[in-house]
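User: Quick sanity check before I run a bigger batch. Here is a single chain. Can you write out its predicted 3D structure?
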Amino acid sequence: MTWFVAPWGGEVRGVRSARQSWSRRDGLLVALRDSGHVSFGEATPLPGFGLDTLEPIDADSLPAPVDDLEAVQRLACAIPSPSTRFAIETALLDRIARRRRQSLAQLLGASASTAPRSVLVGDLLDDQSLDAARTHAARGALTLKLKARGRDLCEESRRLRELGQLLGPRVAVRLDLNGSLDAGAAREALELYATHGVELCEEPAGEGELLKLGAAATPWFADESATRPDLFEAFLAHPGCGGFVLKPTLVGGLLPSLERARRARAAGKRAVTSHAFEGPVALAAASELAVAIGAGPAHGLDRHAALAAFPQLCIPQLPELAPLVVVASGGAGLGIHVEGPWDRP
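Assistant: Done. Predicted structure follows.
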C-alpha cells in the first residue's frame, strides 16, 4: 500500500460567485495504490468560503487503508482541514468500493442509480443569461440556477419574467444570493421571487442575518452559512430554513455530508449536493453523494469553468443525456483514473 500526493490545478477564467471571483484553482490530488488498484481523492479548498486553506499533505503520514465505513470516518475525523479530510476519505472509500465492485454511491447506500441535476447558468442580470438558459434547456436541463444580488428588484423581476416566457413551466428556476442581503432585504426579494415561481433561493442573507430570516414566500436553503457544525445545528432547528446545500469540500467529507442530508430529511428539510469549483475527482465524488442522497430538488452538479485548470477527464457521473441527471459511475468506485507516478511498478 502506497500513498501519493501531487499538485493539482492552475489558472482559470470566468469562475465567480455573486461576491468574488477566482483566477486560480489550486489543490492536491491524493492517490492510494493498493493490491494493483489505484483510488483517488482531491483537496481543493475554495478561498473565501470558510477558514480552510491549502495545506501540504505528507504522503508518509497518511493512514493505512481500512475496510469499513465507520473506520474510514474515524480516521478522517482526526484530520483538521475539511478539504484534506474529504480527499483522504474519498480515496479510502474509493478503495473499498473498488474492492467490493460497487459504485461509490452504492457503498454509501444509494437506493437508485440516478438523481436530478441542475445547471448553473450565470448572473441573472447578465445580458447573455437568456441565451445561456436557452442553451442549457436545450441540453435537457430541467432546473436552472442563476446568481442574483437582490438589490435591483425591478430589473430582476423583468429578467425573471423573460426567463419564464422563454422556458415555460417545465423548467424550474433557482436563484443564489451568496449571502449578499440582510434579513429585511432578503425577505423583500424572496416575496418578489415567489411571484415569478422561483423554486428556491440559496443563501439569501449572510450567516447572522440568515438566522433572523423566518419562513419566506420563496423557500430558502442555507449554504456556506451552515458549514460549521454548530451553525448546521442552528439551521436544522430553524423553522424558516427549508434545507441545505452540501459541498463536501467545505463540510469535510462524503460521510458527514450524507449524515447531514439524513438529519435534514428527518427534520422535514431537504438537502442538495453542489461543488466548490473543484477538479474532476471531487466533482465525481460529489456526484456519487448526490445519487446516494437521491431524489428531491435537483443537485447543483454540472461541468463548470474551473475544470479548465485540471486534467480533462471523462466524468461518467455527468452524462450528456436529456433530461440531465447525475448517475452512479457504472463501474467500481469513482470510475475515474488519473495518470501519474502511481501507475509505475
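The CA atoms of residues 117 and 299 lie 5 Å apart.

User: Great, the batch can go ahead then.
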